[in-house]
Structures are given as C-alpha cells and as structure tokens.
Design brief:
Blueprint (H helix, E strand, L loop, with lengths): L16 H7 L12 H16 L3 H12 L13 E3 L12 E4 L3 E6 L2 E6 L4 E7 L6 E4 L5 E7 L5 E7 L5 E7 L5 E4 L3 E2 L6 E9 L4 E10 L2 E7 L1 E6 L5 E6 L4 E6 L2 E5 L1 E5 L2 E6 L2 E5 L5 E4 L10 E5 L2 E5 L7 E6 H6 L7 E4 L1 E4 L6 E6 L2 E6 L6 E7 L4 E7 L2 E6 L2 E5 L5 E6 L2 E6 L2 E5 L8 E5 L8 E4 L8 E5 L4 E6 L2 E5 L20 E2 L6 E3 L2 E3 L14 E7 L2 E6 L3 E5 L5 E6 L5 E5 L4 E5 L3 E9 L2 E5 L6 E2 L13 E2 L7 E3 L9 E3 L6 E4 L4 E4 L1 H6 L1 E3 L4
Antiparallel strand pairs: 1-58, 2-3, 3-4, 4-5, 6-7, 7-8, 8-9, 10-12, 11-12, 12-13, 13-14, 15-16, 16-17, 17-18, 19-20, 20-21, 21-22, 23-24, 24-25, 25-26, 27-28, 28-29, 29-30, 31-32, 32-33, 33-34, 35-36, 36-37, 37-38, 39-40, 40-41, 42-43, 43-44, 45-46, 46-47, 47-48, 49-50, 49-53, 50-51, 51-52, ...
Helix pairs in contact: 2-3
Length: about 675
C-alpha cells in the first residue's frame, strides 16, 4: 500500500492511521528512489500536514523527500533548519511502540506516526497536554492516557484513533500517598485497560501498589502487587504477575489460576504449567489445548504478531508449534498451523519475527503475515545455545564463543570468547579470560574477513562499562571512578583533559531495532557521520552568521553561515547560554550557575573561568522575547507560541538583527518574521 494514495486527509483527523498501521503501510528503512505514485502520495500528504498546521511532521516529510530528490514547498518558507528533523522530535521521547513496519512515538503532548524510514504516515495526534502515561493497543488502533492532579482523582481516557471517538472515560479516587501510575495496558479491542498505582504508605513509607481494571462494566481493583501481562475484551480476563507469590496468574470469572508462563494475543491468552497449555477464550472461559507434542514441565509460550508459539521444555529433539490466535480463540482444539523442529527466541529487530535454531543451524521466522516464512541464515561452529540481536546484528551463542552476522545471514565475525558486548553495529568488545595481558579485545566487524580486525584494549580484568560517544567517535570505558577514552580505529587510549567528562547519553528502549536517544530515534545502519542527524540541543545563540549551540552532554558546537560545523569540546554540566558583563557568551549550569566565559583561541572556542565578571541571561533582542515565552516580530504585535501547531521549544532566543531562534530538543528553527507569525497566536490584552 502506498501512503495516502486516494485518501483525503482531514485537518485533525487520523482517519487513515488504523488502516496504515494494521495493513503495514510503512516503507523500507533503506533509502529509495521515489516512483511517480509515491511522489504524488507524499506531496498530497505534505499538503494535508501543512493544512493541519502539523509543523514538525511537515518538517520530517520535507527532510525525507529532500534526501530522495523530491522538493516539497517548505512549510516555514525561508526559515533555516539547523539539524535534521527526520527520526527526531521537538521534545524528548517519552515512549515508542513498533509494529513490523511502523513506529508510533510519544513525545510530550503528541503522538507521531512514522514508517521505519522515518517518513510520516499520518498527521500527529495532539493529546491536549502532556499526560502522565500513554498506552497503545497492540494493533495501534486505540490509545489510553492517564492524568493525575495533586489531591485529585486519577483520570483515564481511551480514544479510538481513526475518528477520535471516546472508548473509555473514568475517574478513580486517589489515596493518600499515591504518586505514580504504570503505563496503561489496553485490551486488543481498546475497550478495557489495566494499570497499577504506586502508593507510599506511612508509617514506614514503603511503596504499595494496587492493580486496577477499567472496562465497560466499571472500575475494579483486582488486587495488590500485581503486574499487568494482558487483558481480555470487556475485562473478561486479566493476566497478571504476582509480585508476592512470584508467579503468573490468569484471573477470570472470579477464579485465580496460577501458571508458570502466560502469553496473550488476539483477545485470548494461553497459560503453561506442568499439566500442559490452557487457553483463555475472549469471553473468559478456560479450555485445555491438546499438546502438539511432549511439552515437558515448563513449555515455552510466546505471542508474536497474530501467532501463538509453543515450544517444548527439552534440549534435545525440541519442536515448536505455531497457532493462529484467531483460530484457537474460536476453537482451542484447532490443530497447529505448522510444527517445526528446533527452539525459538524473540528478536529485537522485528517484533513480528523469531529466531529459530536447531543444532548448529539457525534461521529467522517471519510471523507478520497470514502464513509463516522461514528463511535459513547459516551454520554455527558448535551447537547453538541461544540467539539474540542488537543494533541490527544477530549474535549466535555457542559453547565457548559467538558468531555475529547481519540480518541476511552474512557472517561478520566468529571466535572463542568468554563474554562480549556490542557497542555499535560494527564494533564488538570481547573478553578472553585466559589472556592475562589483554583480557579485552576490540573487534571490528565486516563481511570481508580481510577488513576485520582484533585489537587489544588497555583495560584490566575489572568490569568496565563501555559507552560510545557518537559525537566524537570515541569509546568511553568506565570502572569505579576511573575512565578512559579509546580510539575505535587503533584501540589506543586518547589523552583527555581533566576538565573533560565522560559523555552521558540518555538511552532508553531496546538496543536493537530502534534506540531512543533523548529526542531522536537511531535508525538502522552505520553510526551517522553528519552532525545534524546526531544533534541534540539544549540552547543556542547566533551572532555574525555563526550559531553557537549547547548540544548533548554539554557539547559546545558552532554552525557557520557556510554550513560548516565546529566542535569545541564537552562540558557535561553545561545547559544554558548567557552573557557576561564583558559582553562575551558564557556557559551556565541549571539555574544559571556560571561555568565560564567562551573565548576564541584561534579557530577553537575555549572556556575561561573569570571571577571578575557577572553573568546574566541573553538579551530579549529585536523580538522582545519574554520569560513567559511571548515574542514580538519586528514591527508586529505580541504573540504567544501556538502549541497546537508544534510543541513549545526549550527556549526562544532573539539575536540582534537576526532570526528568532526556536531551540527544540533536536533542531534549531531560525524563523523569519512570516514563519514566527505563523507559529504564534496574538496575546490577549485586557
């Protein structure tokens, strides 16, 4: 399906979102040449984004199209974008969800709908305000938000994304000490949800939590210390994890049934124990599932896409059975669609796929469609113990070593080791305990064995934590209070000044298909070289055509009128720019605590601590930017940033005789007066 073809997008509507997500309308993450039909569809969608005043999605679309040779009329006119909005967002990412070919990102007050290539699939969805928690149904059709005001009730709202219709509304009275709610877990039909509330209870102050189900039948507290695993239509059943009893439980029709493992999908659930596998149908009835083969005492259960996958609890002669959830929900005695020899493990790179291995052979199982597709990938040196994946690399573990390959099965390296850590898709650190002189080795992965390399690292046998500084292409190794910077090309230590600090990166989500770094999604493929596709911002100022930026981890960057970047070092606690009493730019910590003044030293900017100066905030400039976020275009009227068009920037800066700088978390918008007027609303005066 081509995104947007033949569909009229509404201004607010997400009428195509469910169709796109359910039908898998995302495109390949690789760069592509756009055909006439796709170009037409993207152009039409961009017009709708502009008409909807969905600024950030329009900027993402423009970046995506520009890289593929399609010039779209820029929504912000002659304004300059410093940084790349593709795979990035104006605020830090709170959560992301993935299908086989789509991604939904929650950042502050919006949901964004993207293909795996970063191209918007639909207008973003304005949540109204940044809620405390957001949950998305398994198929991406429904959302649920949770809010809580001090001394007020917990407010829950469920919405169908296709038309904005309310599916759930509830207010749950708060108890004294309530301070946290988990992400709501929705039933597949979106009509029910389950979450827990954490409460700090006197007199000992220990945390307690209670689990709540909200369904068409009302609000029900189903127990304490229960973690959510799954929920049936209309709340007919609930799958939970009992923290107190350390076991999984299915709760249905007033009955509590303990299980060793539970998998949920298609409105149904399956629980496994020593007696076999039992299916909970959508109405809550519990039925035994005939064993497709001897399962052992603890059968393996996994839900992947629309499939239930059951594996035997045995090492030799293992088998795996694949059932369609829809078939066993209708008839739990339905036979498996397919039985294969081997064992399965989950993949990071695709939520609709599994690794399959038997003996030394390994393959990948595509569960995204109505039929299964099994693709052999390769053969390991010894019997495979486990397979997992990170950074789009498959790691095949066997006794005494590991094999690394790409998603197509091409071998990148194999060797003996006692442990390993994948830093990037092309850099692996291994540990060989028998090597007392160099227990840690840096391995460069490559298809061509001649391009591979193994370099000894100057690290002892202690447990080192390794980070990769994407801005400077440097490995940082941390142990206790010691740290080293290591060149990934030579494996040698790089000298660093005492004022430098190890880079800190805010990384969440799994380290496989998509990694969230503050306000960016890291795409598949090599670490990017261009600064603009790695940029994370804290503050910026512009003078004489040069933009000075505080980036991630206090990186001091410059961007000149010719589009050239300069990197002037890292000052990890730097968060804000100011001006000292001598008129020089200065760096500050949170709360405008002075760190030092920025002084040119040749082509480099350095930081000088000057006890003789005072520090103040940057001037309001010709735009008369105020602390409350109002601004006045030259010769215009006072405006307030319109958050229905784009999330409020981290800060607004107004250099003299320059553009208005809207500093977002991942890019800087240097706005013309026309664009700044477009993004503001007149300030009401009384």
């Amino acid at each position: 399906m081509v995104v947007g073809t033949g569909v009229k997008w509404s201004v607010r509507g997400l009428a195509l979102v469910c169709l796109l997500l359910a039908a898998g309308a995302g495109t390949s993450a690789a760069a592509e040449q756009l055909g006439a039909e796709r170009r037409s569809a993207l152009t039409a969608l961009h017009r709708d984004l502009v008409a909807a005043r969905d600024v950030w999605s329009a900027l993402q679309m423009e970046s995506f199209a520009r890289a593929r040779g399609l010039a779209l009329p820029p929504m912000l006119g002659a304004s300059r974008i410093i940084g790349d909005p593709l795979f990035a967002f104006p605020m830090s990412i709170d959560r992301c969800w993935e299908g086989s070919d789509w991604t939904v990102v929650w950042a502050s007050d919006r949901l964004y709908f993207l293909g795996l290539d970063g191209c918007p699939l639909a207008p973003s969805h304005l949540l109204g305000r940044a809620p405390m928690r957001v949950g998305l149904s398994r198929d991406g059709r429904h959302i649920c938000t949770i809010d809580h005001a001090e001394h007020g009730p917990w407010r829950l709202a469920g919405t169908r994304l296709s038309d904005g219709a309310a599916t759930l509304r509830a207010e749950i009275p708060a108890q004294d000490g309530d301070f946290y709610a988990s992400e709501p877990l929705l039933s597949d039909d979106g009509g029910s949800t389950m979450f827990f509330v954490l409460r700090r209870a006197p007199p000992d102050g220990h945390d307690e939590f209670r689990t709540i189900v909200v369904s068409p039948g009302g609000v029900q507290v189903i127990g304490a210390a229960l973690g959510e695993l799954g929920l049936g239509p209309a709340g007919a059943w609930a799958a939970v994890w009992s923290q107190d009893l350390k076991r999984s439980e299915l709760r249905t029709q007033g009955r509590i049934k303990p299980f060793l493992k539970i998998a949920c999908g298609g409105g149904a659930a399956a629980g496994g124990d020593e007696d076999g596998v039992h299916v909970v149908r959508p109405d809550g009835s519990l039925v035994d599932l005939p064993a497709p083969f001897p399962l052992g005492k603890n059968p393996d259960l996994q839900s992947v896409g629309d499939w239930l996958v059951i594996g035997a609890d045995v090492a030799e002669g293992a088998q795996v059975a694949f059932y369609r959830w829809s078939e066993i929900a209708a008839d739990p005695r339905a036979p498996p669609v397919r039985v294969v020899e081997g064992r399965c493990s989950a993949t990071n790179r695709d939520p609709h796929a599994l690794w399959l291995f038997r003996g030394r052979d390994y393959a990948i199982v595509d569960c995204s469609g109505a039929t299964l597709r099994i693709t052999p990938l390769g053969v390991a040196a010894e019997t495979i113990q486990m397979i997992n994946d990170e950074f789009d690399r498959c790691l095949v573990r066997y006794a005494g070593g590991v094999l690394i390959c790409d998603p197509a099965g091409a071998e990148l390296w194999r060797g003996a080791c006692n442990g390993w850590y994948l830093i990037t898709r092309d850099l692996l650190v291994i540990r060989r305990d028998r090597d007392a002189q160099a227990p840690h080795q840096l391995v460069r992965l490559a298809r061509d064995p001649r391009e591979r390399a193994e370099l000894p690292l100057p690290l002892d046998k202690r447990a080192w934590r390794l980070l990769y500084d994407h801005t400077h292409d440097i490995i940082s190794a941390h142990c206790d209070h010691a740290w080293e910077r290591i060149d990934p090309r030579s494996g040698r230590v790089v000298p660093h000044a005492e004022t430098d600090e190890p880079p800190f990166e805010s990384i969440t989500e799994r380290a496989g298909r998509r990694v969230v770094a503050a306000a960016r999604l890291r795409a598949r493929g090599p670490a990017p070289e261009r600064v603009e596709v790695r940029l994370l911002c804290a503050d910026a100022w512009q003078d004489a055509g040069t933009t000075t930026i505080i980036g991630a981890s206090g990186h001091l960057l410059t961007f000149d009128a010719n589009g050239q970047w300069g990197d002037h070092g890292s000052f990890a606690s730097a968060m804000r720019l100011g001006i000292d009493s001598r008129g020089r730019l200065a760096l500050a910590e949170h709360g405008m605590v002075y760190l030092g003044s920025i002084v040119p030293t040749g082509a480099r900017l350095t930081l000088v601590k000057d006890a003789t100066v005072m520090m103040d905030d940057l001037p309001a400039g010709d735009w008369q930017v105020q602390r409350d976020g109002t601004y006045t275009p030259p010769g215009g009227r006072a405006l307030r940033w319109d958050e229905t068009a784009i999330s409020h920037p981290l800060t607004l800066r107004a250099p003299t005789r320059g553009a208005l700088l809207a500093v977002t978390a991942s890019a800087i918008l240097a706005l013309t007066p026309a664009a700044a007027t477009q993004l503001g609303r007149p300030v009401e005066t009384r």
